[in-house]
Specification:
CATH architecture of the largest domain: 3-Layer(aba) Sandwich
Order of helices and strands: HEHEEHHEEHHHHHEEEEH
Low-confidence stretches: 1-27
Number of helices: 10
Oligomer: single chain
Helix content: 25-40%
CATH topology of the largest domain: Beta-lactamase
Length: 268
């Protein structure tokens, strides 16, 4: 790995960009990982990636400019916030709450979250209501905080956008219970984030896919990997043609990067 050497003015800019993810910043804890480009190119993607080692305070970034300056619709990663607000306000009773929202029949909240059931969380948003949802967007300082007129689709239609560094800050605060919600709400959603757990590691994440106004597909994978009770937070944001299998391609890139960083063997 190559540590970032830069001027003092550039470090000020960089520290501001990753303020939500880091408590402090210095030339010795930020590394530009330009080598990750090959994983994106092999998958037919462009994008950015950030990984924060909470124990050492080291932060690894691929495509810094895009990571700190570009903003995209959160798509289904907004279900993290939607679920938190739903639980906090009582619109979601618990993870077992069942709704019938489409022809597929009843679905439980925990399954809806893990399977990304958009109709389920559209209904939750309608039950929350526009004023209450706006209150929480403002309280969280979530991205651009703009909803537009549609309370049940604003996280897809590019009214609301968010930067990758802001996404990382959100999941980091969720993990440590530092968001402005009750402990129960945060613990419930934190458990829902878990996708894979075994003796070596626990991998927790939420995915999302939306489309830019120019038609290009945008995908997110946001979450953390835990080894030996040590969390590492990550955000992967990617772009590709509208007809591509961008979700699976993004997961392939994530797994290659994490493996390259030495994860999955329980030795971190």
């Amino acid at each position: 790995m190559r540590f970032l050497k830069s001027s003092s003015s550039f470090l000020v800019i960089l520290c501001s960009a990753v303020l939500l993810a880091l408590q402090s910043c210095s030339p010795n804890n930020v590394t530009l990982q330009n080598g990750y480009k090959k994983h994106f190119e092999e998958a037919g993607l462009t994008g950015s990636f950030g990984l924060f080692d909470n124990g050492s305070g080291e932060f690894y970034i691929y495509n810094l400019a895009q990571f700190k300056d570009s903003s995209y619709a959160p798509a289904s990663t907004f279900e993290i916030v939607n679920a938190l607000v739903g639980i906090e306000t009582g619109r979601i009773v618990d993870e077992k709450m069942t709704l019938s929202v489409d022809s597929a029949g009843p679905i439980r909240m925990d399954s809806a979250f893990k399977q990304t059931s958009t109709p389920y969380f559209m209904e939750v948003a309608r039950r929350i209501g526009k004023d209450t949802m706006q209150h929480w967007l403002d309280s969280l300082q979530y991205g651009t905080k703009k909803m537009g007129n549609a309370v049940d689709s604003f996280w897809f239609n590019n009214n609301l956008t968010i930067r990758p560094d802001e996404q990382l800050g959100l999941v980091k605060k969720l993990y440590f219970g530092q968001l402005p919600f009750q402990k129960r709400s945060q613990e419930m959603v934190k458990k829902l984030m878990v996708q894979t757990t075994n003796a070596n590691y626990t991998l927790s994440y939420k995915t999302g896919v939306s489309y830019k106004q120019n038609g290009k597909a945008v995908a997110w994978v946001v979450g953390w990997i835990e080894e030996n009770r040590h969390p590492y937070f990550f955000v992967l944001q990617s772009e590709s043609a509208a007809n591509s299998d961008i979700k699976n391609a993004s997961m392939l890139v994530l797994n290659k990067i994490l493996k390259e960083q030495g994860f999955f063997e329980g030795k971190r």
